[in-house]
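Changelog note: in this version the structure field was regenerated for every chain. One regenerated record is shown below for reference.
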Amino acid sequence: MRRTFVILALIVLAAGQARPMTGDGGLPVAKPEQVGMSSKHLALLDGIIAEALDRRDFPGAVLLVARGGRTVFRKAYGDAQRVPEPRPMKADMIFDLASLTKPVATATSIMILAERGKLRLWDKIVDFVPGFTPYYYEKGVAGGEARIWHLLTHTSGLPPYLDAEEAADRLGRPCAPEALVEEIARLPKESPAGTRFVYSCLNFITLAHIVKEVTGRTLAEFAADNIFGPLGMSRTFFLPPERLRSSCVPTEVVDGVPLRGVVHDPLARLQGGVSGNAGLFSTADDLAVFAQMVLGKGEYRGARVLSPLGVERMTEIFPKVPWAGRGFGWDLDSDYASVGGDLLGSGSYGHSGYTGTSIWIDPETSTTVILLTNRVHPQDKGDIISLRSRVANVVAAAIDRREP
């Protein structure tokens, strides 16, 4: 009897040891060598981040590296905040993603609607926003109508941004998103549609409006039900609930108080926190799951969010405007693509966010690099442009086996 009990205990213990660890609700965890990466080389990341902290480039960071569907590096550095008092960073904390909202929530939602036959990327914007004006040449000659794909690739002719304070004076605070979109639609276009790349938050504010026009639901509601919920991204949302506010990493100090769980972007804040250009909050673990869905051609653990062809079209340079270097929501080779460093392949893609966030995905090596910082805390003076590239280079150089 005693021998039987010992055998059963060993079986249970072995089963427990065999169960894959996960990164706090994220991907399974593996040692770097298990997926063809060097632990020794990845350890260089600690020094690079430490140097940036010493320079006070940002208060703190969370860095996650995944390969082959498994997390191989996941660490928190520095402080989540400096004011009103220091507080250490934790790896599961929730960040204001800023412009990562664009590919993760907005572009993905638009592609889902295209796949369901609810819209076409070739549809005219004016079909959803009746007041959307074209570019006007000399003597008032109108240019061609902008399409949804122009918004996705930042080639619509819209200017980069709109003064939020001036908009608030005209529209109120908070303002109805529809009123802001109408104002954006009337803005003089800076170039004919499809002729010039100008990175513009206004493109994606307009796309969020299109999601609501088509579905009758806000971007926050649609993305929660069709992206984050199916993928189990339980700590990804617009408007973080009060119970999780203490887990949110604060950004800039505004009116003497750090923004915690309140979106940093002025136009998103003007709309009450839900916008197509910014407003999404998430963790490194949840973003790793999203990235694995993309690497899995739209599917993760039985949950299909996008079709394989939808993912391919989103993550390749759109051939109508190859000089833009953009896919549908994703950056591949624009002037902003330094996030990917110098070594990852030309088919890799990603995005960065103003608050100090970034994600880069390389399908050639099945590798994801997620770097989340709060460089805007407390006074919007931090700088991480160079750091992003150097982190990506170290991760790429740590790959010592072609297949994970």
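Spot check on this record: The first strand starts at residue 60 and ends at 67. Residues 2-18 form the longest helix (17 residues).
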